[in-house]
Amino acid sequence: MATWRSMALLFLFLHLLPLAAMADKDAFVGFNIGTALSDMPSPTQVVALLKAQKIFHVRLYDADQAMLLALSGTGIRVTVSVPNQQLLAIGQSNSTAANWVARNILTHVPATNITAISVGSEVLTAIPNAAPVLVSALKFIHAALVAARLDSHIKVSTAHSSSIILDSFPPSQAFFNRTWDPVMIPLLEFLQSTKSYLMLNVYPYYDYIQSRDAIPLDYALFRPLPPNKEAVDSNTLLHYTNVFDAIVDAAYFSMSYLNFTNIPIVVTESGWPSKGDSNEPDATLDNANTYNSNLIKHVINNTGTPKHPGVAVSTFIYELYNEDARSGVVSEKNWGLFDGNGRPIYVLHLTGSGTMLANDTTNQTYCVARDGVDRKMLQAALDWACGPGKVDCSAMVQGAPCYEPDTVAAHATYAFDAYYHRMVMAEGTCDFNGVATVTTTDPSHGSCIFPGSNGSNGTFINGTSLAPSSNSTSGSLSTFNESNSVSFLRLIVVLLLSGVFL
């Protein structure tokens, strides 16, 4: 028995050894920054949002000069990209690649903390005609970095769609599409020799949709499953509780199939849309919130995957902003966590997930009066908040810190925010029939300190009155203003606290 145990431990040690050096590196969560917005924030505004949300890793889809300048001096780690339309020229000319590096990298480092270059995006599936020059492009870019002595700091790779993996479940049977062997094998050799990593885009949303109900929604959203519902790889007996891990392990096994066992994986895109067309019923705020909240917890807790537990799988969430100017179905425009004004699309549930976004959509959002709304509606909402809403409005009486400015909008903003934080920023508690909105800008002024500023987030009271919203059927705000006979919704809430997945 002792001999068998020793052999088993030795086997396990040898199995994990190739990736052991990665296990002590903490995983990070970053954000992709798309620019297809009808009113794109300025680079300075983008960086201000990143700082406010404590986002320390970003990925750009190009090497925009203004954006790289705005990131200068912030310490934010930046992955820049060679756009697909430039790939053919760079892949066929060493000098063109060197010029690209000189113009887009050397002029910005070290002030801007560029740590990686993604050469193209999903080239094999998006522009297969450029595949023959892909590895050359990586090598030419890397050679320019070597010449500038930046190769140890800036890694070079290329982002792949997970669709290049065939027969992805069980993961142990997965393999890369053999059609791409002439590209994948030299690519993996390059990544291995330069100590770089495989960039992979992982979208459980699309896997779930394409499975036609074969994949349970909970399995795609990282929700806990009973043991008998977990997916088991019959070859390895590894249990999979979510689609994300299964795809990442399928990539690990695909590399192993080609005899590459020491190349780490960074997920360059993953997320869930918050809105979709009528034929996309699972693109909802709740599902997007659940997926991204659970993904962030999963990544920064260094959970790893069943094949490589504890080995970091750093991930960039797709994406920072909703891109309303994108073409295609509604979901294509709604992957962001923020709108163009920096307002959260939904409130993430990140209790117990450390400092990553811990004071963004969880602790540093505020409920304010919308600009230009009907004054009578605003007054009605203010009356409700200070009355049935049970907000302490004493800070707004004459002589109190929040009396000035003595306007309905200013007083309503204080009352709305006090109610919003008293209700722990729950969904639907910052609407007031459309006259309120969530913002990340602190409305505090002078000695008037708003609840969200001092960490006084209140207590969610089971059974308290729910603030009227545009989706409420409990009565209109005009009813609140004209009569004391008000129908209240009972808000029944189950709080999922630290350590419990949504």
TrEMBL record:
<dbReference type="InterPro" id="IPR000490">
    <property type="entry name" value="Glyco_hydro_17"/>
</dbReference>
<keyword id="KW-1015">Disulfide bond</keyword>
<keyword id="KW-0336">GPI-anchor</keyword>
<dbReference type="GO" id="GO:0006952">
    <property type="term" value="P:defense response"/>
</dbReference>
<dbReference type="GO" id="GO:0042973">
    <property type="term" value="F:glucan endo-1,3-beta-D-glucosidase activity"/>
</dbReference>
<dbReference type="InterPro" id="IPR017853">
    <property type="entry name" value="GH"/>
</dbReference>
<dbReference type="GO" id="GO:0005886">
    <property type="term" value="C:plasma membrane"/>
</dbReference>
<keyword id="KW-0611">Plant defense</keyword>
<dbReference type="InterPro" id="IPR044965">
    <property type="entry name" value="Glyco_hydro_17_plant"/>
</dbReference>
<protein>
    <recommendedName>
        <fullName>glucan endo-1,3-beta-D-glucosidase</fullName>
        <ecNumber>3.2.1.39</ecNumber>
    </recommendedName>
</protein>
<keyword id="KW-1003">Cell membrane</keyword>
<comment type="similarity">
    <text>Belongs to the glycosyl hydrolase 17 family.</text>
</comment>
<dbReference type="GO" id="GO:0009506">
    <property type="term" value="C:plasmodesma"/>
</dbReference>
<feature type="signal peptide">
    <location>
        <begin position="1"/>
        <end position="23"/>
    </location>
</feature>
<feature type="domain" description="X8">
    <location>
        <begin position="365"/>
        <end position="450"/>
    </location>
</feature>
<dbReference type="GO" id="GO:0098552">
    <property type="term" value="C:side of membrane"/>
</dbReference>
<keyword id="KW-0732">Signal</keyword>
<keyword id="KW-0472">Membrane</keyword>
<keyword id="KW-0325">Glycoprotein</keyword>
<keyword id="KW-0378">Hydrolase</keyword>
<dbReference type="Pfam" id="PF00332">
    <property type="entry name" value="Glyco_hydro_17"/>
</dbReference>
<dbReference type="InterPro" id="IPR012946">
    <property type="entry name" value="X8"/>
</dbReference>
<keyword id="KW-0326">Glycosidase</keyword>
<dbReference type="Pfam" id="PF07983">
    <property type="entry name" value="X8"/>
</dbReference>
<keyword id="KW-0449">Lipoprotein</keyword>
<dbReference type="GO" id="GO:0005975">
    <property type="term" value="P:carbohydrate metabolic process"/>
</dbReference>
